[in-house]
Amino acid sequence: MIEQNGQDERGLVCVAGATGFVGRSLVSELLGRGWRVRALARSRDKARRVLPTDALGDGRLSIVEGDALGEGVAEKFVTGADACVNLIGIIRETSGRQTFKRAHTLTTRALVRACEGAGVTRFVQMSALGVSDDGRTEYYRTKWSAERAVRASSLKWTVFRPGLIHGPQGEFMRLAQAWCEGRAMPHLFIPMFTRLDPEWSPPRPPRFEDPVVSPVRVEDVAFAFAEALDRESAVFEVYDLVGPERITMREMLQELRDALPLGKKKLRVIGLPSEVAAMKAKGAAMVGLRDALPFDEGMAIMGGKDSVAELEKASAHLSFAPAPYTETMRAYAASM
Length: 336
What we know:
Elements: E1 12-16, H1 21-32, E2 36-41, H2 44-50, H3 53-58, E3 61-65, H4 73-78, E4 83-86, H5 100-118, E5 122-126, H6 138-151, E6 156-162, E7 165-166, H7 171-180, E8 190-196, E9 208-209, E10 212-213, E11 216-217, H8 218-229, E12 237-241, E13 247-248, H9 249-259, E14 269-273, H10 274-286, H11 297-303, H12 312-318, H13 325-333
Parallel strand pairs: 1-2, 1-4, 2-3, 4-5, 5-6, 6-12, 7-11, 8-14
Antiparallel strand pairs: 8-9, 10-13
Helix pairs in contact: 1-8, 5-6, 9-13, 10-11
């Protein structure tokens, strides 16, 4: 637990990735709990657009503009803080400098070093459900190496591994909305990834199954991160974060389609074999067409996996009680 700096004001928490989907929710959660927040953002203008203007105006929220790997930026960002939360991450590499290694591993190492040098003792890291040292994708491998950097540090760390995070401003939900309304490729159906049934064997025709997911609401993820700063029991712990409802990805997309005012009810959800899609993406990348498909090899592989976990540990340590997907999605879908 981090003590308050006085009766009416809590300490300062630095949030890297503050303008992202989870970051915006976490900044609001921390401010609501009385923390002061310092946001690291590549664009000051974007930060001013998406972060609470009242907190910017009264000084409870400040912005450091720059890249954590820029010279002196990480040190400036964390100096004088009580804690640092790292939410920086990407789901897909782009042309240029935005690589998994840079966004996940190198950025995390830079923030950890800066915190150790500045005397910031508390560190909370956003990882991902399913990471391991033998992960099949570069996304998983770099997220794992980032975890290792945090866990090998001298800091009082906590690592969170969220599953599929949902909310009206989430990138995936916005894309799924466009599919359900027929505004995005492939237009004629709603796509998802499936996987080969492990019990299938030749010479029978291949049989595929849908991955199972437990979508977790972005506000519940923000609650868990903020709660960890108040609980000594969360130090040196790793938590999976998922929602309480287990449904197939097909059911998740169908529920969204039917809840959206402009959702096209006649559009079917069609599964694409993840391993086949991964091979196509890999081939496209090899001939210089990496951006021709709306997914890469790693996204296809991960899309065929379940995204579920147990809630007992997070519930016991953090009073984590997430809301179910279907009910909460229906509440916000009408205004998407």
